[in-house]
């Protein structure tokens, strides 16, 4: 049974990652005919052309601006929301968390269409405004927010609830007690939530597609290129995007592993 399980796992990973490895390999193809199946030698020319393409650089700039703003704003709002939710009674906390989790369990296409309709309605009410950078940022904040809350909530539950009150008893005002006592305790959850929000923002296509208007991000630009013809430039761009997302996910997993290890050590010392 163990052998069958191992074989199944190997086949599953091959099925999932073999296309990605083929894409990465052919992003270094030296073919001058843009062939997708003939290997002509190793070359970095498609990466050079990639960074000489003005439209790709504009899409990259838009993607980074949106991801940075969305992750920063969602981190601040998500942390504040998590602190507020943590202070609620059990029934209210459960109800609010169920509402908070809706964007995550909702199909992305439903979220994208609903946000598009909302933004179009508001834009028409405000005077013939159009979808663009602002609508993209607001959409990304919306779907990143629940992930930040979920990252911060476990840290708040692990924290001794009497620390904040003890700091105030010792003379700290509420803001000082939060900055010196609460914030350091939940900082690892905040950083993890921010990295996760940044990763999700960079990687998003469906919601961005419906709320972008004329503004292009990297996933949207890759999609528009594939509708014309798949060239090694797309392979190179997809490889860079995959590498960035993979690096960020490794950082998130590494931080979560360290947090679990630290929690076990603290419990062991407490025992």
Features of the shown structure:
271 residues; mainly alpha; MetI-like fold; globular
Overview of this protein structure:
- This protein has 271 residues and is mainly alpha-helical.
- The protein has one domain: MetI-like (MetI-like fold), CATH 1.10.3720.
- Helix content is 80%, strand content 0%.
- The chain is built from twelve helices and no strands.
- It is globular and about 75 Å long.
- It starts with a helix and ends with a helix.
- The mean pLDDT is 82.
- In CATH terms, what is the fold-level topology? MetI-like fold
Briefly, what CATH class?
Mainly Alpha
Mean pLDDT: 82
Backbone structural class: mainly alpha
Helical stretch count? 12
Query: End-to-end distance, in Å?
Result: 39 Å
- What is the N-to-C succession of helices and strands? HHHHHHHHHHHH
- Backbone CA Rg: 23 Å
CATH superfamily: MetI-like
Number of domains: 1
């Amino acid at each position: 049974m163990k052998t069958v399980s191992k074989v199944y796992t190997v086949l599953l990973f091959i099925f999932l990652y073999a296309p990605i490895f083929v894409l990465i390999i052919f992003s270094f193809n030296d073919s001058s005919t843009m062939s997708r199946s003939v290997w002509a030698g190793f070359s970095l020319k498609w990466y050079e052309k990639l960074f000489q393409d003005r439209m790709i650089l504009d899409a990259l700039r838009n993607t980074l601006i949106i991801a940075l703003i969305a992750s920063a704003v969602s981190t601040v709002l998500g942390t504040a929301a998590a602190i507020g939710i943590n202070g609620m009674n059990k029934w209210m906390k459960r109800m609010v968390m169920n509402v908070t989790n809706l964007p995550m369990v909702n199909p992305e296409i439903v979220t994208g269409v609903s946000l598009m309709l909302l933004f179009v309605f508001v834009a028409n009410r405000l005077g013939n405004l159009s979808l663009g950078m602002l609508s993209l940022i607001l959409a990304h904040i919306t779907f990143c927010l629940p992930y930040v809350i979920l990252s911060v909530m476990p840290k708040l539950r692990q924290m001794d609830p009497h620390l904040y009150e003890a700091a105030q008893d010792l003379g700290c005002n509420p803001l000082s007690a939060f900055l010196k006592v609460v914030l350091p305790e939940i900082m690892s959850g905040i950083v993890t939530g921010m990295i996760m929000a940044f990763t999700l923002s960079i990687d998003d296509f469906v919601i961005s597609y419906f709320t972008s208007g004329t503004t292009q991000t990297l996933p949207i630009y890759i999609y528009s290129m594939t509708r014309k013809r798949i060239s090694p430039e797309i392979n190179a761009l997809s490889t860079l995007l995959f590498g960035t997302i993979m690096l960020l996910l490794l950082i998130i997993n590494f931080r979560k592993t360290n947090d679990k290890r630290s929690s076990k050590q603290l419990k062991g010392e407490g025992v």
